[in-house]
Design brief:
The protein has 606 residues and is α+β, with helices and mostly antiparallel strands.
Length: 606
């Protein structure tokens, strides 16, 4: 019994040893097979697929960045800086390296409390729609304190990098904004019309004025650079670089000191425009449109509350009144109408017309501004004293088409070609114009009121300034421009039949300022130079035959105040046009402003 049990025990032990050995051999073969697969895969990756994975690794390590071009600076005629580039800190976002977008948005809100929720939400909405590999800049300039705080916490924000950029700044703020313009964020409409390769790395574009008109000169061309980055997107070192081409610096014809002074003259008036031109070459010396606004608000993107406030401002600061303000020119056109009449021998400059204070035609009485009348008036007297009745009668001898043809060469009813985008043509009426635009015949009664710049007549301040400059320079048709190096066609010359006719008209405009009965005589007293001028008062609404007291009607219905003038008389260096909306009498409001601008400029011009 005992011996039998010992035999069975030995057999079981042998069996267990064999089972263990078999399992060990199987395990060894399994491990060897597994290692063979791994080694084979590694060999495959190393030998057969090396190039593909090497390139992928390099792409993760080396990235190509765009170098945005430096925008060209803008200077005034005296080399005073009007638009500069200021180095600032901002944040650069690369979407593919951002692990948690919501966390990043929350962190940015904590780090940059002055970056409003509205602007923050708008930016992250744009970021989420941006190509994963593309980098975009936060439209916000960090203070030094904010930049330092970000640097401390940047480890929590992979894909977000602190970077420096150049931000457009306007040292004179709102001064001259309608001429100089401003830059702002590129919108979707602009993006579709751009050459995308030229605007890589750039998120702003010229929006108004010179900044927009000369965008191609100012923008420049972007460059590229290869940089080595770590897994979090931090730049380790720069590799190959193709530098950007900076935009061109440009010099304007504006005199910023004269501009500031001219704008200051509107301190008691809310709306209007002054345009001052050099009659010799068309250089714009001052370009005023008030009210203004600060262009610096738009560079990083204006918030909705501020933008709505500007839009709702009843004085409409966004209207560029110099080129888009269309006003009845009033009596400022009388010198041009008179010149057309005597150049065409329609009337002798010495012929006298009696003014009883009105002109009757077909049962309708057209009032003169002076209710008691001016008495006997020749052409010189009629311009000097701004006699409406003289021009009422003259207009019927001329006819509307002759009035049109007399004024058209001076630029009325046409674009001046000034280098500011969006210019309006105004209206210089004729029979043809009325048929084409209103499908109606012309009536002689309309000719009467057209002769004093009312009715359908509409002119912009820059048109009035151009016409005044052409009168001052003896008929040379100059083109108003703001770029000092502008390449212009040689000016054409208005045909002059008798230079004495021009001299008579200019003498009458001299008497407006220096004559005993001139409408602006009190503003010409004591001037160190002689000048020519013409006042104008344009009705905003029809008064019929009733009188009115200005203080009894709404300010917005008061007459517009106008003035044109040039000086010095013997060698004109400046021509101006002034319009003060609802300013009342031209002799009382616009004339002194125009005289002050001329005086200020000539004080500092040899």
């Amino acid at each position: 019994m005992h011996e039998h049990l010992e035999f069975n025990s030995d057999a079981e032990a042998f069996s267990e040893k064999r089972l263990f050995r078999n399992r060990l051999i199987f395990a060894m073969f399994f491990v060897l097979a597994l290692f063979s697969v791994l080694i084979g895969r590694m060999a495959y990756l190393q030998w057969f697929d090396f190039e593909r994975y090497h390139l992928m690794a390099e792409d993760n390590r080396i990235s190509v960045e765009t170098i945005p071009p430096t925008r060209g600076k803008i200077y005034d005629r005296n080399h005073i800086l009007l638009a500069d580039n200021q180095p600032v800190f901002t944040l650069k976002f690369t979407r593919e390296k951002i692990e948690d977008m919501d966390l990043v948005q929350k962190k940015i809100a904590e780090l940059l409390p002055d970056f409003t929720e509205e602007r923050r939400d708008k930016f992250f909405e744009k970021l989420k729609k941006t190509s994963r590999s593309k980098t975009i800049l936060l439209p916000y300039s960090l203070t030094e304190k904010e930049a330092a705080q970000f640097a401390v916490q940047s480890y929590d924000l992979p894909g977000v990098v602190l970077t420096a950029r150049l931000k457009r700044t306007y040292p004179f703020g709102a001064t001259g904004v309608h001429a100089i313009g401003y830059v702002g964020r590129i919108n979707m409409k602009e993006l579709t019309n751009l050459n995308e390769s030229d605007y890589r790395g750039t998120d702003v574009i010229g929006k108004l004025g010179i900044e927009r008109y000369y965008e191609d000169k100012l923008h420049g061309k972007p460059g590229i650079q290869q940089v080595e980055t770590n897994a979090r997107g931090r730049v380790l070192r720069k590799l190959e670089t193709t530098p950007s081409i900076p935009g061109e610096d440009i010099q304007l014809t504006l005199d910023i000191k004269l501009q500031q002074y001219a704008e200051s003259l509107f301190k008691n008036h809310k709306r209007g425009s002054i345009v001052a031109i050099d009659p010799k070459n068309g250089e714009v010396l001052a370009y005023v449109s008030v009210p203004t606004f600060d262009p610096n608000l738009f560079v990083d993107g204006i918030d909705q509350a501020s933008y709505r406030a500007l839009l709702k401002n009843p004085n409409k600061p966004f209207i560029n009144r110099g080129i888009n303000g269309k006003y009845p020119p009033g009596s400022t056109i009388k010198p041009f109408v008179a010149l057309g009449a005597i150049e065409r021998n329609i009337i002798s400059p010495n012929k006298k017309i009696y003014d009883p204070g009105y002109f009757e035609y077909m049962g309708h009485r057209y009032r003169d501004w002076k209710r008691t009348g001016h008495g006997l008036m020749d052409m010189e007297d009629a311009i000097t004293q701004s006699c409406d009745t003289y021009f009422y009668e003259l207009s019927l001898d001329m006819g509307i088409d002759t009035i049109h043809d007399s004024m058209a060469p001076f630029g009325f009813g046409s674009l001046t070609g000034i280098d500011i985008p969006g210019e309006s043509k105004g209206i210089l009426p004729s029979q043809k114009w009325k048929r084409e635009t209103k499908d109606l015949p012309w009536y002689r009664g309309e000719t009467i009121i057209s002769s004093i710049g009312q009715g359908y007549n509409l002119a912009t301040p820059v048109q009035l300034a151009k016409a005044t400059a052409i009168l001052a320079n003896g008929g040379k048709i100059i083109q108003p421009h703001l770029l000092r190096s502008a390449e212009l066609e040689p000016p054409k010359q208005i045909e002059i039949k008798d230079i004495k006719n021009w001299e008579r008209v200019i003498k009458a405009m001299r008497n407006v300022m220096h004559g005993a009965r001139g409408t602006a005589r009190r503003h010409g007293v004591g001037l160190p130079f002689k000048m020519a001028g013409k006042t104008g008062t344009a009705q905003v609404f029809s008064l019929n035959e009733s009188d009115y007291e200005a203080e009894n009607i709404d300010k917005s219905l008061h007459d517009h105040s106008l003035f044109i003038g040039f000086a010095p008389l013997n060698d004109p260096k400046i021509a101006v046009a002034v319009i003060v909306e609802n300013g009342g009498s031209g002799s009382r409001t616009a004339a002194p402003m125009g005289v002050d601008v001329i005086k200020k400029y000539l004080e500092h011009t040899p």
